[in-house]
Amino acid sequence: MRPYIGCGVGLFSKSITTNYLPVYTEDVWGYEPKVGVLLDSKILKNLFVDASVSYMYAKTKFNAPKAINVAVGLKYYFEFDKLMN
Questions:
Q1: CA 78 to CA 82: how far, in whole Å?
Q2: Rounded to whole angstroms, how far apart are CA atoms 39 and 44?
Q3: Measuring CA to CA, which of 9, 19, 39, 62 is 20 to 30 A from 2?
């Protein structure tokens, strides 16, 4: 088991559509701190199950989009030093 923390930064887009106003789109920078754990899959040597929780936040003019993301996936790590030799 390998616990980890991380933080992503990105450009987020928010669009607002109403019946009375034209479409409003705003692009803003936001961040996404993350906490997760890599678990050995016991299938292949470098294959891990990645389980994480992150919180996305981006400040916009009207209201800030926020989201809590829960993700589970697979990650495979290549050993480049063995590939080069």
A1: 9
A2: 12
A3: 9
